[in-house]
Specification:
Radius of gyration: 19 Å
Strand order of the largest sheet: 3-2-1-4-5-6-11
Helix content: 40-55%
Structural class: alpha/beta
Distance between the termini: 47 Å
Number of strands: 13
Strand content: 5-15%
Shape: globular
Order of helices and strands: EHEHEHEHHEHEEHEEEHEEHEHH
Number of helices: 11
Length: about 325
């Protein structure tokens, strides 16, 4: 039983136009929360817009690096819980535009946290980090006590944001917890450069899906609804046990897959055996990254409710409906 009552609770979500943000907003609305979304750019093909969630929330135009705007939203909307998801999350964009990535991911995080520190009504803050914050380690899976040593621009930005969040909790007793997840997938992600939507679209149209790597890179894949539930569970645990401030949690189904293994599972769900086009063009990325979720299971009581196989089935069903409607 949690002490956190979501009914009519004012909640701020940054990054609501992203894949996970859309699912998180839907789950919060389902619990009766009063959801406020700080949005820099309108994204008409986000789940927030496609599924009409934008008509059920309060939208505020603004940038997370603008502290006056963030403080105004927290104060005027009497925000009690903050989910900070907004970030530049595409590795290729980060490599081409490191300064804007550092600005959004690092300055954006300290701006939100500083605004929360100066806003007395805020009681819980959940900051989205990533498995990428760990960087490369010889021993896997990642556990929360491993050092954060991201090297490339995106990974380094997540390491920094994660450490800054821990600093605010330690120095000012700010009620912030940190989530570290693998690769999210689910209906509503229309960035077809990403693996899951790209493979589904290609297989749906009878094309060989293009794999830029050698197909042997190993990753964690977490269904977006399980991710949304993880974020909510983190906030609820923080409300129940304030001593958890500063803690980071890995969330994973603990079934790491190679790219080709994930493609094979999608082929099975879609009933096709079209072979992928393996280009082997990507060499600079970390070859294996996956998480141990023991701490989340034991301290938060979290477990994936949907899981990998059902998550892939739901995701394929969403894209089939969308792709048929779009043609």
């Amino acid at each position: 039983m949690t002490s956190l009552d979501w009914q009519d609770r004012p909640v701020l979500v940054t990054g609501a136009t992203g894949l996970l943000g859309g699912w998180l907003v839907e789950h919060l609305l389902g619990r009766g929360a009063l959801v406020v979304c700080l949005i820099r750019d309108q994204v008409p093909f986000s789940r927030l817009a496609l599924d009409g969630l934008d008509r059920k929330v309060i939208q505020v135009d603004g940038d997370i690096v603008d502290q006056a705007t963030v403080e105004r939203v927290l104060g005027e909307r009497e925000i009690r819980t903050v989910f900070h998801l907004a970030a530049q999350a595409i590795v290729g964009v980060a490599n081409r535009n490191p300064v804007s990535t550092f600005d959004s991911n690092i300055r954006g995080t300290w701006t939100v946290l500083e605004a929360c520190r100066r806003s007395p009504l805020v009681e819980q803050i959940v900051v989205a980090s990533s498995d990428k914050a760990y960087g490369e380690h010889e021993v896997l899976p990642y556990t929360e006590d491993m050092p954060l040593q991201g090297v490339n621009p995106y990974d380094a930005s997540k390491s920094c944001a994660d450490l800054i969040s821990q600093s605010y909790a330690s120095t000012w007793d700010l009620p912030v917890s940190i989530t570290r997840c693998g690769n999210f997938y689910g209906g509503g992600d229309l960035n077809f450069n990403r693996l899951v939507p790209g493979v589904i679209r290609d297989l749906h149209h009878g094309r060989a899906p293009v794999i830029r790597s050698d197909g042997k890179f190993v990753r964690d894949y977490l269904y977006a609804e399980d991710g949304a539930a993880a974020y909510i569970a983190t906030a609820e645990a923080l409300a129940e046990r304030p001593e958890l401030a500063g803690r980071a949690y890995n969330f994973s189904v603990e079934t790491p897959l190679t790219v080709l293994e994930l493609v094979e599972r999608l082929q099975q769900v879609m009933g096709t055996d079209i072979a992928p086009d393996v280009r082997n063009e990507v060499t600079a990325e970390i070859r294996a990254q996956y998480l141990d979720a023991t701490r989340a299971r034991t301290e938060l009581g979290w477990a994936p409710a949907v899981g990998l196989d059902e998550g892939l089935r739901r995701t394929v069903a969403w894209y089939r409906t969308w792709l048929e409607r779009a043609t």
